[in-house]
Amino acid sequence: MKLFKNIIVVTLCVLLLIPATTASAADYTVTSNDTLYSLSLLFNTSVKALRYSNNFDENSLSPGDEIYVPAHVYKVKSGDSLYTIATKYEIPVASLKKANGKTSNSIVPGEKLMIPGVKPYKSSDNVIPYTSGEVGLLAKLIEAEAAGETMQAKIAVGAVVVNRVQSGDWAPTITGVINQKFGEYYQFTPVKIGTIDNTPSDASKRAAWIAMFGSDPSNGAIFYFDQTSKNQWLWSKEQTAQLDHMVFVK
Fold this sequence. Notes:
By secondary structure, this protein is of the alpha+beta class. The chain is built from ten helices and eight strands.
């Protein structure tokens, strides 16, 4: 999971910047009256996005299921109330309570709340063009780079590829970004050593789809690396997230 450009090393900087609100995917616990359609309305997404990002074969849910939904995650601060948070994001208090399974107005500082109805990125189902084969390739990269990491780290790896495609500074497709080289330098080590051909897990497949539908726990990162890396050029870049053993920068 080492991404390099042939650039001179600069000074070390280890400032971690974590915003209070992040574009992410979050767990939602299904209740008895939920349907994929009602949840698509609540979280301002589509039935297709929910099905693909959760590997659903049918348009059905069961109470108690935990599913990933595209949502901002907000960390409650002292002085916050459900009303002030809902007002800030211009959503109904009832939607905020529904998304977080709340039956009262009680919240506490440090608590994390899903913010429904706020799209992390674009309003379309997916944020960049793709083929099914390219999503499969993205899942393979996620498996090779983050097999032992949590789902959020897996999604963030996928988001880095999406961010590069969107940036205009890299190849314009998923395949192009993953296979891109600068001189002799591969951008993704699994392509160089062949582990990109390993079969991805279901979790890596889900993470690929979640990233494709706009979730970005990396907070706009363009690079990622293991926290044990000694590469000072990478450490010198602006950090946007640290997930498990992985650091994300831009």
